[in-house]
Amino acid sequence: MSPGGREVTITIDGREVAAVEGEMLHDAARKGDVEIPYFCYEPKLGDPVGACRMCLVEIEGIPKLQTSCSTPVREGMVVHTRTEQVKEAQSAVVEFLLVNHPLDCPVCDKGGECPLQDISYGWGPGRSRVIDEKRHFEKPIELSPLVAIDRERCILCYRCVRFSQEVAEDAQLQLIERGDRTYVGTFDDRPYVAPFHGNITDICPVGALTSYTYRFRARPWDIEHAGSVCTLCPSQCNVSFTVRDEKVKRVIARDNHEVDDGWLCDRGRYGFEMFDAPERVRGPRLKGGEAGWDEAIAKAAEGLRAASRGRRGWSSADNSGEGPARTTPASSGVAAIVGDASNEEGFLLQRIVREALGSAHVDSRPSRGPRADVLRQLAEPAISARVRDIDEADAILVLGTDPLHSSPILDLRVRKAIRRNGAKLVVATERPTALDGGAEAIARYAPGQAAHFASELASAIGGAENVASPVAETLREADTVVVIWGERIAREDGAAEALLDVAKATGMADSDGAGLLEIPDTTNARGLREAGCLPDAGPGLSETAAGMSTEEIRNALVSGEITSLILFGVDPLRDFPDTPAWEEALTAADFVVSFSMHENATTAKADVVLPLETHAEKDGTVTHPDGRLQRVRPSASRPENVLPNIIVLSQLASKLGLDTGIDSQPTAFKALTDAVSFYAGIADADLGGRGLRWQDRNTPELHQLVHPADRQVDAVRERGSVEMPSGSADGELTLGTYRDLWAGPITELNPPLRFLTPHQRLEISPRDAQRLDLKNGEAVRVSQNGNAIDAAVLIKERIAPGTVFLAEGVSGANANGLLNGGSVQVEIEKVRA
Amino acid sequence: MSPVDGPGRNNPSLPVDPAVREGRVPGRAEEEIPELHEVDCPPELAERIETLMGRYPDRRSASIPALWGVQERYGWCTPEGIRQAAAVMRVTPAYLESVASFYDLLHTKPVGTHRIEVCTNISCWMRGGDRLLDAFKAAAGGDDADFFVTGFECLGACDIAPMASIDQRYYGPLEAAEAGVAIEQLRAGDEVLPEKALARRGLAGDA
Amino acid sequence: MAHRLEKRVLLEHASDPALRTLDGYRRLAGGYATMERAYKEMEQDEVLQELEDSGLRGRGGAGFSMGKKASFLPRGEMAKYLCCNADESEPGAFKDRELMQRNPHQLIEGIAIAALAADAGHAFIFIRGEYDEQADILDAAVAEAYEAGYLGTNILGCHRDLELVVHRGAGAYICGEETALLDALEGKRGNPRLKPPFPAVQGLYGGPTLINNVETLSNVPHIVRHGAEWFKGFGTEQSPGTKVVSVSGGVRRPGNYEVELGIPTRELICDLAGGPEEGHEIKAFFPGGSSSPVLTAEEGLDLPYSFEAMAEAGSMLGSGSIIVADDRVSIPHLALRTARFYHHESCGKCVPCREGTNWTVKMLERMVRGEATPMDLDIVSSVQQNIIGHCLCVLGDSMAMPVGAMVRKFRDEFEAVMADPELVLDPHAVVRGAPETLGAST
Ligand SMILES: Cc1cc2nc3c(=O)[nH]c(=O)nc-3n(C[C@H](O)[C@H](O)[C@H](O)COP(=O)(O)O)c2cc1C
Ligand code: SF4
Ligand code: FES
Question: Which residues are within 8 A (CB) of A615 and not within 5 positions of it... i.e. 6 or more apart?
Fold first, then answer.
């Protein structure tokens, strides 16, 4: 796609148009405001196919009309798009298209936003001379449980099949049969189930592909489109909500090359019906039952203040109980854990904890993570990559994450880099990833060995001969390396430091376009960290008194050192490692305030439950893992008794005697940007529809704002070489746990997605399966010091012998009940039927 | 065009769609690239496909030959056969079905053991191709298990029009009456219309 | 023995079944001596020059200079390919079948020499799946050639390699179109590609690729053996050489006849192929396969059978296949048969071809059922015009040109049929001569 580059001038319809040599004539024309009708052309789908013939134009010196979508621009080209010859061709093509098209616009969902309709009016012959029978298909039928296909309307533009071939690369959607008998279908008429398949409804130029979730729901003239950001995963794709009667009826892509390339995963596209799920928390609630807002907030403040006095401290007489507690942070019995929250929400919450409750115990990570000084180095602009850097990278290292599950849209981005740009991919993970197929080199380390592997890799890139050498070469030879790494590896001691060594070894700092790109565990992890939701760093990653990490908080709750807990948009009993320990912790807690969108196991244990807005309702900003601040705009109405989250937080603050001066999104955003040094001066207008990456504002001092502290080489990294998985004969199996894209409320609370709810499966290598005499689908029990989980066997060739995998977050059999921590003994015994 | 909200609301003529709110559980699992241990492909078929892949710079080039292999093994390109070939070739079954369905000689629906293609294109049509086709259909009766009789585009043998390809061998010029003879010979397992076999003909110019 | 009007070069010795074997080919035709000489004594450029000088024009349809095309391939170290187009699926064409069946080694030797000229290391024969018998014959011959060291690595000790694979298609006329052939060979659906880039620059697996027809390549050994001048001694200035012509339809002796290009078409049809049945006249004929606009007897019979003469007459020599329609053939039905073929074979990728062929068939069906008006005739004509020049490849044009020509030249017949279909004579009667009504004929 990247054109020759040289600026040239061409003439279209007598007007001179500036163009780039090698770009397609159609694109040049569009830039020159010359509209050429088209159907099949879509550069995002790969090379032009020239199938629809709608874009024919006359080029001087060439006798036949040419398809502008596939004709590269040359200096001095003279083009005509309005001559008789061209007009005749255009109306001929429209007439041909309608030979078999049913023209059932009145009952077609595409009606009113249909390219075929528009082009027929604009360029068609007016009336069709066709009186013959049109082709018939059974209609509409289920292409997938989410997408209906009406084959009579299909104009065979190839867009959907090219998406399946060239973008998602699942190759499941194909053309079947030949000639005018051709139809779009799947193998053996099986459903087209793939994580991105909803995109085909966006790119179909007619009403052939429509979403069941939107069929007959609304018409173009009684809906509004609201641009916002999807916060159902860290990808933070830009979306446009189709809103009718203040309710979200549809989610479609809002192309942002810097973020999503105009694609959406089905999670973001269909995951909006849980906004009205029965489980939705629709108002404040106390243990006893529903409560008014004032009562609930007062109760929350009371319980928290009590705990904040701690068992020690709280003496000074001048304190009547109102006003900020003046206890030493360490002694406060309050802690807070933030998950799904906007920057402003996180910022406010950490102020409440630190300033109003005098506690330093605030975290935004599921268990633990690197120390603040390491985080600051990881955040160095010089070694951080933009999403779009993936497109141009020479080599891409995917380390300790499977983008398909943890940040789906990046999976497509990496595929594109390989396909279009010939990027070399290295995958280093515990578990096979969806990207393995395109990888140049793959390293499989044992679960819990990420830190060691990373440090081995760093020295291997430096030239050392070790277990990582086989994959290191590719990275050594590349000029620009983008490392896509999963936050969860940083739960291991020394992993983050090792990552910095990898960055150094590949010379990232000096190479433009090279850098680290984190895939965090939660949707706005970076924003929350930068807003100050870390135990050892305040807003802007500033130095502050050290508090406890999530894991430490959990232990402290058990030991009684911490007695009271604020949970904001997190469900520890579902999402955090070691469910049994969390059960114990929450039971031990005296007082728990849970801010939650939906009822769940955790809210059931809470003393005060406060409702949260959905990302379609809330107003705020989030920060993309690459540092891009993006605006989440309120698009749909809140349930009546749900208040804006920031208002609730500032009310709670003032009840606790802290006047934040925040009473709206603008004031909240102002407070945030004032507090975060490297957000300083960013105005809402700067974010616009595309967002703003703070590293890209070239105010020089910015770069000093994140001050690297000298990193002492950590003892943990001096350990021996990577223990690659071994199919040890004694049958010891190492358990790895991973988060499945579809595990959790997303499928349980969204009727349309329910069919995707994952069941627990024990992934095991053919060798181990044979040794243990296991068959595919067989029920087994996976146990580990006392805890057990039932699962069905799934034999996978690419699983390394000696390792097995279970999914986290699966209801009923949640792998968080078992530990991924290092090498674990896992027994498998057949469930006796 | 009246605005419509919800299945058929204020427009009863619209089809009411049960899936508007709920994604139904699909009947069968979607089909990605199957793993070998999931398909139990006959070893000789797997071997043949492996060899075929070895003959080309790009393994995908073997897809048509591989499908020929599947068709020979199972009589037609059965879904199971396609999955087996897909597992060996490491492509999706959908890809192979798409290829198979494009070509007239690869069958994605069951066909009879003996395949009889009667040319009905220009030269044969002028000389009675349609009648020959009818004659073959009549002679084969309803016997779909043993015979697959179909009209076909020009088979490249207009010199022996009207002609037919029987189990991939050419015969002509054929009288309608000879259709019955051929069917009987096929049933009996005898050599088919020896004197009408293309292989036995001399050069036209020599006559 | 061969008729005096025939000039057999490619079909020399073809009557002898022994020619099919390596021994026979060596013994009867001095087989592979030319290739040996070319490999041992000639440079790539000499071979190229010889082919270009000969003026050999492609025998597959387009009639483009073979030597020129070969010279378009970029030089230098890269994987280059040679594809022999043996898809022969155009109605009326059956010459390649004869050449492969009777003289497979001539083709293989031609491929080996052409590969030298194109500097190709990998060659393929894409043969239509229906030609199973001929594919078996080729397989056997290729095996012999490998055995004898004419194919494989370090051929004849000249440090040249050539792999030759016989690739069977599976039934799709479009695969004869060179870029569709490439897609099919790459294991995909046989859809034509956008041109440019042309195969000579970017073809099979993205590498430079020379694509030539069976007959074209079968000519190569003879040209390199006897020289360009010898070759130009046959035929006309613009159509040098001999041509194997397939004659079929309403003639007494249908078959392949090898003649010098440029002989009177009448001699081909009436003398060699025996002319129409007793008591019947030639009404019209396709001079170059079903894709060529039909010529009436008056227009065509006395034209020299050459590329240029046919082009001048508004038709084309194409693959060199003559289909004769005598006075009993109903042109509207002939048009329908022709249209049906292209409708059935359209790959479906581009709109004008996919929908245009389908629409044309529907209209012609209405006409022969007597359910059309003269206005529909104008629509049929304009639809053909709307197809021509607007498609991705020329399959669409291949229907539009002959059908358009039939409507233009036999409008009265169409009007007659529309008025009363019963009037039309039975096309089947060509052989049996007994007029019947139309029942089964469409
Ligand atoms: C629809 C279509 C079908 C064709 N079929 C054949 C064919 O069966 N055999 C062939 O040699 N050329 C066929 N051609 C011509 C080829 O595209 C190509 O021009 C030819 O193979 C080049 O070889 P030549 O230069 O030796 O003729 C066909 C072209 C079209 C557009
Ligand atoms: S279904 Fe839509 S996108 Fe797919 S080929 Fe048909 S018209 Fe194009
Ligand atoms: S847009 Fe150019 S051919 Fe379809």
Answer: A228, A229, A230, A231, A232, A632
pLDDT at site A214: 85
The answer to whether the Cβ–Cβ distance between B155 and C167 falls below 8 Å is no
The residue to mutate among A24, A30, A35, A38, having the most atoms of ligand 3 within 8 angstroms of its beta carbon, is A38
CB-nearest partner of A132 from C343, C351, C363: C363
- Give the separation between CA A781 and CA A813, rounded to whole angstroms: 10
Best residue of C344, C353, C355 to probe chain A, by most A CBs closer than 10 Å? C355
List the end-to-end C-alpha distance of chain A, in Å, as a whole number: 58
Q: Which of C345, C352, C359 sits opposite A53 (nearest CB)?
A: C352
Angle at C210 between CA C206 and CA C211, to 5 degrees: 105
DSSP C291: T
ipTM score above 0.90 = yes
Q: What is the C-alpha separation between A813 and A830, in angstroms, rounded?
A: 16
Using CA atoms, how far apart are residues A741 and A289, in angstroms rounded to an integer?
34
C105 token code pair: 């080694």
C-alpha–C-alpha distance, residues C21 and C136, integer Å: 13
Q: What is the DSSP string of C321-349?
A: EEEEEETTS-HHHHHHHHHHHHHHH--S-
C-beta atoms surrounding A603 within 10 Å? 22
Give how far C53 is from chain B: nearest CA, Å.
30
A803-808 and A734-739 as β-strands: parallel, antiparallel, unpaired?
parallel
Q: Which of A789, A775, A772 is nearest to A732 (CA)?
A: A772
Q: Are A284 and A609 in contact (CB under 8 A)?
A: yes
Which residues from C are below 8 Å from A41, CB to CB?
none
Q: What is the pLDDT of residue C118?
A: 97
Task: Look at ligand 1, atom 29, and give the residue with the nearest C-alpha.
Answer: C177
Contact A258, A249 (CB under 8 A): no
Name all chains with 3 or more CB-CB pairs below 8 Å to chain A. Answer: B, C
Nearest-CA neighbor of A42 among A250, A261, A310? A261
pLDDT of B93-142, one tens digit each? 999 999 999 999 999 999 999 999 999 999 999 999 999 999 999 999 98
Interface contact C359-A130, CB threshold 8 A:
yes
Atom 8 (ligand 1) nearest CA: C88
Helix, strand, or coil (residue A256): coil
Q: Name the packing angle between helices B79-89 and B63-74 (round to 10°).
A: 140
Instruction: Using CA atoms of A767, A772, A773, A778 in order, give the dihedral in degrees to the nearest 10.
Output: -100
Q: Which among A51, A70, A89 has the least Cβ separation from residue C349? A: A51
Q: For C170-225, how does the pLDDT look when each residue is reduced to its tens digit (9 = 90+)? A: 999 999 999 999 999 999 999 999 999 999 999 999 999 999 999 999 999 999 99
Q: Residue window 332-351, chain C: list those with CB within 8 Å of chain A.
A: 343-351
Interface test mutation site (partner B, options C11, C130, C259, max chain B beta carbons within 10 A): C130
| Extended beta strands in B92-166, E state | 114-119, 147-152, 164-166
Nearest ligand to the C-alpha atom of residue C90: 1
Block residue for tokens 């009718």: A244
Name, in order, each residue with C-beta under 8 angstroms of C438's C-beta and a sequence gap of 6 or more. C330, C333, C368, C421, C422, C424, C426
Determine the distance separating the centroid of ligand 3 and the alpha carbon of C351, expressed in angstroms: 10
pLDDT at A732: 77
Cα within 13 Å of Cα(B142), Cβ side: 0
What is residue A628's DSSP assignment?
Answer: E
- pLDDT (0 to 100) of residue A830: 62
DSSP 3-state of A471: helix
Q: What is the pTM of this model?
A: 0.93
Could you say which DSSP state residue C414 is in? H
Cα–Cα dist B109/A522, whole Å: 49
Tell me the pLDDT of chain A averaged across its residues: 90
Tokens of A138: 């059974």
Provide the residue type at A681 as one letter: G
